[in-house]
Each structure stands twice: as C-alpha cells, then as structure tokens.
Amino acid sequence: MNDRRLLTVSELTTTIRSLLEGSFPFVSVVGEISNLHRPLSGHFYFTLKDADAQIRAVLFKTQQRYLTEPPADGRQVVCRGRISVYEARGDYQLIVDTIEPRGTGMLQQAFAELKHRLTAEGLFDAHLKRQPPSFPRHITLITSPKGAAVHDFIRIATRRFPPIRIAVYPVTVQGEQAAPSMIEALTTINTSISTDLIVLCRGGGSIEDLWAFNDEQLARAIRRSTIPVVSAVGHEIDFTIADFAADLRAPTPSGAAELLIPDGSALQKNLADLCARMQHSLRFSLNDTGQRVQLARQRLLSVPHSLDRLSLHLDYLSVRLKRSFVDTLADKQRDLDQTALHLSRLSPKHHHAIRCQQLLNLKERLVRAGKLLLQNKEIQLTKIVAVLDAVSPLATLARGYAVVRLTRGKKRLVTEANQVRIGSVVEILLHQGRLQCKVEDRYGENDEPL
Fold first, then answer.
1. Where in the numbering of this chain does the OB-fold nucleic acid binding domain appear (predicted)?
2. Burial of 201 by CB count in 10 Å (0-12 exposed, 13-18 middle, 19+ buried)?
3. If you placed Cys at 156, which of 206, 257, 352, 417 could pair as Cys (CB 3.0 to 4.6 Å)?
4. Angle in degrees, CA 417, 419, 421, rounded to 5
C-alpha cells in the first residue's frame, strides 16, 4: 500500500472545497425555499429545492439589508452566490449574496432587448468613454441621502483622502419617479454645479428595485453629460443599463470610493520615498560633478604648453579650417554647376523643345509628301480619264454613230433589222439629243428587203 496516497478527512474536505469554490465562483440558482429558520445570530438558513433535488443555503446577516422583502417558505426565488463546503459537517452549501423573486423573467428580457438596441446604436462604444480624473477634488453623488450606500461611500472616501469634497444631490433611486429625478439631477449638475466627477450611487436590491437604472432616457442623459459619470449601483453581480452607459462602472458604492479616491497615506508614503530618492540622486550628482571638476583642474595644471602657444596653434588651425572651408565651397559650387547643366539637359522642357522641332520637321516632310502624292495621283487620273474617254460609248456617238432601241417594254437595243416590224416606233440616241422614228422598210446585210 502506498502511504503517499492517504488523505486525512480534513485534507479531503479541504480539497473538495477548493474544487467546488474554484469550479463555481458564482452561480444563480432557481428553487423553492423550505425549512427556513433564523437563529440568534441573525443569519437565514434554508433549503433551496426543486422537484428532484435540494441544496442547503445560508444568507448572512450583513447581506440582508439588500433584501426587498424577507424570505419565506414556499416562495420561488433566484439565489445568487457561490458554492462552498462547511467542513465541520462535511456539507456543501450555497452562500447566498442576493435573493430575487422568480417573477423577473420579463424584466430580464426587456433589459436584454434595450441593451442590444443601444449597443447596436453605438451608445456604449468604448471610444465615447472618458477617463475619470486621477485626483478628483470634488465629487457629486446622485443618490438617496437615507440609504446605506451613501454613508459607506462617504466613510471610505474621507478615510482614504480627508481633504476630498463630497456633495450629495438627493434623488429618488427606486420607483416610477426615480429615473426622471436622476435625469434632472444630471442636467442641473452639468449646468449649475462645478464638480470633477458624478457618481450614481445606490445599494443592492432586486431587479425591480434597480429598474430605474435601466431607463433608456437616463442612459442618454449619462452620455450627454460633459462631466465624467461613474455608475456604482448594487452589488458586483448587478448590471444595469446605466453601468454600460457610464464612463466607468464600480462593483459597489464602497468599491467606487476605493476606485476613484486615492489613498492619502499611500500617497504620503510614495511622496516620502520620492523625496528620499531625489535627495540621494542629488547627493550622488553633486559628488560626481565635484569629482569631475577636480579632475579637470588637475589636468589643466598638468598641461605641458603655455596658453599662448596653444592660442597661436588655435589661430593656425582656424586659418587652415577657413581655407579648407573656402576650397570645399568652391568644389561644391563646381559640382553644383555641373549637376545643374546635367539636369538642364535632362529637363522635360529641353526634351519638349527637341520633340517640338522634330514634330515640325516631320510635319513639313508630310506636307511635301502629300503634295507630291496628289500630283502623281492627278497625273494617273488624267491618263485614266483619257482611256475611259477612248472606250466610252459617248465618244463613239460623238464620231457620228447612234444607238437604236425599242420604245416599248424594256427598251432593248436594236442590233438587227428583224428585231423590229415595219410601222414600229424606235428611239435613236445621238451624241446630243435623241430621235423617235417610224420604221418604213427593213433590209438585210446585202440590202435585201426583209
């Protein structure tokens, strides 16, 4: 048997507790309350069950101030909290942070729809968020002056940084008038109150209690604010539309005070450390500078040449430097002139002038070639006209010949005597004009009558 695998009951229980708490850091469980009892400690102990299973649960006294109504047996609720193990009994149980009535489904759906619509609109975009000041001098709380949240914020804020100035703008934080009163407060503060930061502050509660912070117009008023707005509503597990619209979300009102207000004692300690580091750095710098001055003094005393000789040598070097500078400038000027000449040859203007001249020469050559071509074509045309005149029927008619054709039908040419009858009318085309004649006699090739 391997003794290294042996575990004590405490070790096993601790391991199981670590596994459960690590796997279920935060859960929301729906069930019915039963076996509710409240001992002298003030904690609520009960069983959360459904038709097939049950789990022990505890709501500690410190969390009960956020209840909207006391729990009772037989009620359907949503318990939000974490899983843990009570090692003394070996029981796992639900450590409850908040209890909400089960009838919150419609509100959750309305919340999700509004969040989705405003997100698509870009109201929650990160680039719209403003960074709250690191050292605010004045903070205005929009909250109920009677709630525990405002007192927690002020207590922690004054403890961390006593000189902080805090103003409370009283509003209603629950009910139908809560959202309009907070919108009015935001508008008034932006127009009439000089402050560095606005904090929407409210303690925890059910979704119905926090519903005023899910108002669309309140979200738009937060984004219109020219002063950074921090949302510190409910517990870390509670999310509202105001949280997404605000420039910064704090998990709780107490957490907001921790986030926004610097720790005065830590600042004093840091300042003291910086002063000590600065003094040490200055002492080190002064010592180092003194040593360097002393070394320079010793080197000056050990110079082998007099200052006069060094001065003459310096003048000589100055003359050489001046001459070298003048020669260098002359060389650079020559290089610059050559480069300018080269660039002028490569200039588009120069090339353009050359191309224009070439184009002009080509134009003249084209005109001459065109004239020559026209002359040649004219001579060719004259010859062709002469040939056409020689073979043209009109030229034949001009020599005294005539063309005879019928006057009816298709007016066919008459080439033989037997094509017409005696008494027929024919048309005779002359070189100039035409004749209509009536056939009186017909003769053959040998002048024989037909």
1. 7-100
2. buried
3. 257
4. 85
Domain that holds residue 424: 392-450
Say how far apart CA 27 and CA 73 lie, in whole Å. Answer: 21
Q: How many domains does the chain have?
A: 5
Task: Based on the fold, state whether residues 189 and 239 are members of the same structural domain.
Answer: yes
Whether 301 maps to a domain, the answer reads: no
State the sign of the Cα–Cα–Cα–Cα dihedral 327, 332, 336, 339. positive
In 119-134, which positions are buried (b, 16+ CB within 10 angstroms) versus exposed (e)? eeeebbeeeeeeebee
Check whether residue 379 and residue 429 sit in a common domain.
Answer: no
Which of 391, 415, 433 corresponds to the end of one domain?
391
Q: What is the dihedral of CA 271, 272, 273, 278, to 10 degrees?
A: 90
Q: Give the C-alpha distances (Å, rounded to integers) separating 181 from 151, 222, 227.
A: 20, 13, 18
Question: Measured between alpha carbons, how far is 91 from 57 in angstroms, rounded to an integer?
Answer: 11
Rounded CA separation 213/268 (Å): 38
Q: Do the domain assignments include residue 224?
A: yes
Could you give phi then psi for residue 167, rounded to 5 degrees?
A: -115, 145
**Predicted local distance difference test score (pLDDT) of residue 166:** 94
Q: Tokens 């926090």 map to which residue?
A: 210
Same domain? For 35 and 48 the reply is yes
Which residues of the chain fall below pLDDT 50? 1, 104-105
* CATH number of the domain encompassing residue 127: 3.40.50.10550
What pLDDT was estimated at residue 105?
Answer: 47
